[in-house]
Each structure stands twice: as structure tokens, then as C-alpha cells.
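pls design
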């Protein structure tokens, strides 16, 4: 199947990357995830806007300097993580699903929806009872900047996102 991607310069891109067979190996290797993201910055310029790391998938919103580079950013990230984790545990032969989910953010409302989705995702998956309890996301950075309340994530806050599925 031929996939078509939308490339709009100066856009933000929401991306979901999932492990092969949804093997839950990301949290024990969160340090390698961070290291891999920052190592990719040496080769491709982008801003990491938001993220959430879950046991078997990661959500990010990035703003690549050049929009056509985001597939290369993802490929480089996957390669770097695989290489780093492989050094620790050689039994991880195929870590990632081949494909990934991507969505070009269209406007402010779309951005807000995807930010909410990213930050609420650990609660949706039953990993924690509250958004603020999850340490593997950019939520606390957004709270410090005044973009979320510390107690964000109650039923009113999530009404628009609880039926979304971007995985």
C-alpha cells in the first residue's frame, strides 16, 4: 500500500510510534528514549513540543525545521533507540512496528485536542489515576508555563478526548 503524507511547511506534526507486537519495553528504557531524541537533534533540527511515553508506544508533537525531514527524524530516532537498547539487551531484534501514525496539526483547536490526548493517554490506558501522576510526559512542563492547571484531567476536561484514538 502506498501511503501519502501531508507536508505543510512550518507545521506541527503529531506522531505515534508503537513497539513491535506492543512489547512493553519503553518505560524501563526511558533514559534511552530521551538520549535517542536528543541525539537526533544533532542531525535534524526540530522542536519537541510535547510527548508522552507509555510502556509500548510514544506520542510526540514536533515542529521540524524542514517539514520533509520528519520521516527521517522518526527513522533516526528509531535507529538510535534500537542501537542503544540493543547494546544493553541484544534480545531486542525488532523493536518497532514498521509504520507510524502521523497527523499534521491544522489549527489551534487541533493542537489543543492533540496536546490533551497526549497528556491524558496514561490515564486512558489505566497506568495512573491522574495526569499529574505520570512522570513520562511533558504535562508538568505545560503546568509550569501556565498552559494546564495542576489538577487538569477531570471528567469535564477530557469530555472531548475520551473517545479519540490516535494509535
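designed seq:
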Amino acid at each position: 500500500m502506498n501511503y501519502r503524507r501531508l507536508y505543510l511547511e512550518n507545521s506541527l506534526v503529531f506522531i505515534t510510534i508503537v513497539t513491535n507486537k506492543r512489547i512493553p519495553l519503553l518505560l524501563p528504557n526511558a533514559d534511552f528514549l530521551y538520549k535517542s531524541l536528543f541525539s537526533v537533534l544533532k542531525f535534524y533540527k526540530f522542536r519537541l513540543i510535547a510527548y508522552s511515553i507509555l510502556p509500548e508506544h510514544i506520542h510526540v508533537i514536533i515542529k521540524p525545521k524542514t517539514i520533509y525531514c520528519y520521516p527521517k527524524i522518526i527513522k533516526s530516532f528509531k535507529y538510535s533507540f534500537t542501537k542503544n537498547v540493543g547494546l544493553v539487551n541484544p534480545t531486542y531484534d525488532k523493536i518497532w512496528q514498521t509504520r507510524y501514525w502521523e497527523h499534521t496539526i491544522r489549527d489551534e483547536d487541533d493542537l489543543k485536542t492533540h496536546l490533551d490526548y497526549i497528556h491524558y493517554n496514561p490515564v486512558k490506558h489505566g497506568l495512573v489515576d491522574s495526569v499529574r501522576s505520570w512522570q513520562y510526559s511533558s504535562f508538568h512542563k505545560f503546568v509550569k508555563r501556565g498552559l494546564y492547571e495542576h489538577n487538569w484531567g477531570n471528567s469535564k476536561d477530557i469530555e472531548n478526548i475520551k473517545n479519540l484514538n490516535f494509535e
